[in-house]
Specification:
The chain has helices at about 5-10, 15-25, 45-80, 95-125, 165-170, 265-275, 280-285, 290-295, and strands spanning about 130-140, 140-150, 150-160, 190-195, 200-205, 210-215, 220-225, 230-235, 240-245, 260-265. The chain is of the alpha+beta class and about 300 residues long. A 5-stranded mixed sheet has the order 3-2-1-5-8, with no helix packed on it. The protein binds copper (II) ion.
């Protein structure tokens, strides 16, 4: 099922039956399924961590909900006036009880905060990345630059824009049927290809206004802010095509700058890397013949600006 019809389906899916199904459904699938209400578990380590955190919190809330509502409904049913119940005026001002029902929720919150903080720290730790990708947001497209891969500097640098079919169809009075376009508004001309089982560090920035890069299956979104570098990382476990969108209102075509990530095994990725690399200034300089005077003259100390941000 594609994302658009899945969203419509989710919109229609209400009621206890749907909720029960969502709670019972096995969660080992990246695709959105019919009747699904729960989060998708995603395809990366961080997405799985966020999903597991969500499930732990959900079940803690379910247990609390059952206890609180159970006690409430039991009290309302068993101690109702029609059965001759008389209010217990002494119990309503029990200091001991008030201390207990203040301290117990605080303890529950502390217990919840420990694994949540640990997960957040794990999600923000970009150290030991095997690859760096710089993502720059533009009105209304994305630039991807592979800066390094397995310790080697890379020179892949390209723009990724809305695919031609979607763009043609979205035009006012185009007369074309959006339902006839596969992945309408969710496809690009050039997807970002990434290797699976590789820790990839992303650097986000923007050229004009604030954008945000979001691929739900990766498990996070990150703002791309002009003049700032934001970080994130991923390690994709399952090969596949993952779609996302800009999620910061960035102008009139904000809805027309989708993201497509194609995760492929490492061997396939290295091929893509070789095919899409373009010679950088250093490679061009190395290939050019060295003028005789320059070869003899002592080289001035080069002061190269540092282009790679350190964490
Ligand atoms: Cu944008």
């Amino acid at each position: 099922m594609d994302q658009v019809s899945a969203m419509k389906q989710i919109g229609k899916t209400t009621g206890i039956a749907g909720m029960l199904l969502a709670l019972c459904a096995p969660a080992a699938h990246a695709e959105i399924e019919r009747w699904q209400l729960n989060l998708t578990p995603g395809v990366t380590e961080t997405a799985h961590a966020a999903y597991n955190m969500h499930m732990i919190m959900l079940w803690i809330c379910v247990v609390i909900g059952l206890i609180v509502f159970g006690a409430m409904f039991l009290a309302m049913f068993r101690f109702r006036t029609s059965r001759g119940a008389v209010p217990d005026v002494h119990w309503t001002h029990s200091t001991k009880m008030e201390i207990v029902w203040t301290i117990v929720p605080v303890l529950i919150l502390v217990v919840m905060a420990i694994p949540a903080t640990r997960t957040l720290v794990f999600m923000m730790d970009t150290r030991d990345a095997e690859m760096t990708v710089k993502v720059t947001g533009y009105q209304w497209k994305w630039r991807y630059e592979v800066l390094d891969f397995e310790g080697q500097p890379q020179s892949v640098n390209f723009m990724s824009t809305l695919d031609f079919e979607s763009n043609k169809t979205r035009m006012l009075r185009s007369g074309l049927d959006p339902y006839a376009v596969p992945n309408y508004l969710l496809d690009v001309d050039k997807p970002l290809v990434l290797p699976t089982d590789t820790k990839i560090r992303f650097l986000f920035t923007a050229e004009d206004v604030i954008h945000a890069w979001w691929v739900p299956d990766l498990g996070w979104k990150q703002d791309a802010v002009p003049g700032f570098i934001n970080e994130a990382w991923t390690r994709i476990k399952i090969p596949g095509t993952y779609r996302g969108q800009c999620t910061e209102l960035c102008g009139k075509d904000h809805g027309f700058m989708p993201i497509v990530v194609r995760a492929v095994p490492k061997s396939e990725f290295t091929q893509w890397l070789a095919q899409n690399s373009r010679p950088g200034p250093q490679a061009i300089a190395a290939a050019a013949p060295v003028p005789a005077a320059a070869a003899i003259a002592p080289a001035p100390a080069a002061v190269a600006p540092q282009t790679t941000a350190t964490p």
